[in-house]
């Protein structure tokens, strides 16, 4: 995949209708996090973080968009540990047919968990009817499936239960509206996905059996972990693209080049540490706290490295082509992904002072 992406100019990879998504699909990228027993590649968190950094260095839009695909797949894998087993058939389809999955979860909604319900759902004539919208929604125009969190009346008739609905592209009532107006990261196809009385069969709605032993909070924490690590790695890749350009330049002195290397490689080491922890039992609040600390540290490292790279490459590199200016602009978007640093500041301080971790 890297060889294919390297042959395509950055400007082409960052268009809305870009070839990067086709390359990703053709090279088997949709199967990255699908377990091997379900025809996937079975990448562990460390491998996934490294892949996203590499993709981010080739195409920021492709890295950000595919992070949302991987987040959806990882959530389905985790869901499979709690439900009846239908989602394993879906994971096999994603891997074998190279399907792209868009995320309609609550990423980006202030005050909600990342898996909090975003759609209204009701049962009608043996079907599940969905209404609502998600904006921005990456992969809105190239997705094969949309995953969305919903609340449904519990099967025992008491209260409501949590579920994940799977909506195939082309389902009547599903539409896409323009939303993303910036030229930066337009290749993520982050437009608005609207569901207007969308009917899905019950077998495309995965109910989650929440119990005291397996609370919903565990699923949310897992989702947050994957999201923060993969998104941070993606933007670290964007900064790494500029670092790579400066290392190849004779203009900057060794001290400046070494300083940006220290920034990006120390941030990567921190992300890999949390990713490795996920494979060795780091779970729950401790994992989430470490992931958030690493995310904000990466955010700072990216900002420092990009500023120094732009300065080190010089004005002629900046004005001579669009790549340097574009990569610098794209790198800043990590700060806009949830949870925002200011919103998490008090929660992090309270956690490290002994209180439970909470995400406002």
UniProtKB/TrEMBL annotation:
Entry annotated with the keyword Transport: no
Keywords: FAD, Flavoprotein, Oxidoreductase
Record domain Acyl-CoA oxidase/dehydrogenase middle: where: 105-198
Example of a GO MF term: acyl-CoA dehydrogenase activity
Matches recorded under Gene3D superfamilies: Acyl-CoA dehydrogenase/oxidase, N-terminal domain, Butyryl-CoA Dehydrogenase, subunit A, domain 2
Domain of life: Bacteria
Statement: the UniProt record of this protein carries the keyword Secreted: no
InterPro entries cross-referenced by the UniProt entry: Acyl-CoA_Oxase/DH_mid-dom, Acyl-CoA_Oxase/DH_mid-dom_sf, AcylCoA_DH/ox_N_sf, AcylCoA_DH/oxidase_NM_dom_sf
Matches recorded under Pfam families: Acyl-CoA_dh_M
Name of this protein: Acyl-CoA dehydrogenase
Species of origin: Amycolatopsis pithecellobii
